[in-house]
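Write out this protein's structure.
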Amino acid sequence: MKTAFLPLLALLAASLPLPAETVKDREGAVRADKARFENDARWAYNDIESGFKLAQATGKPLLVVMRCVPCLSCMGIDTAVLMENDALSALLDQFVCVRVMNANALDLTKFQFDFDLSFSTLFFNGDGTVYGRYGSWTHQKNSQESSLAGYKRALEAALAVHKNYPANRAALQGKQGAPLPFVSTLDIPQLAERYQRELNWDGKVVQSCVH
């Protein structure tokens, strides 16, 4: 995962767009996602900081979904996760859940994953320790693929890790982020010149997102 992230960081630094097929109305899709989830009972929307605070307060692990909303890739699994069948709901209930579609100011010391994927999930302890990551190229390549078997196993594995934390802290060392020259996405000079920390909801919101 670390080796896959570093070339991607180079791509970001060069401000090269990542090719992906998108919905026709990208602006509408992004605004609809915000309208649907910004006050959702399950998902804290674009608020990673509050997610970590709530995880610390409740003792639950933190689950952070990273989603490129305009991308058709991974639409099947994203929809399936949000629809929540009974088995998935029972698992999600055990997490603090955050949905993020603004990658502009990610803490790169924590959020190292395959940026080529349109849907990824990271699992944390409230203290910032990474428990694991989930991403699927099967779902990336087939936008209609909606199977959740692998995703559920990832949630179950994260819960098992959390149950044994902090006794297993040493065993998790290899899952933590690698040292990088930048702490935040916007510390990369080429990106800092073009993007702001927050998305431009009063203007062209899609173009204001670094991803």
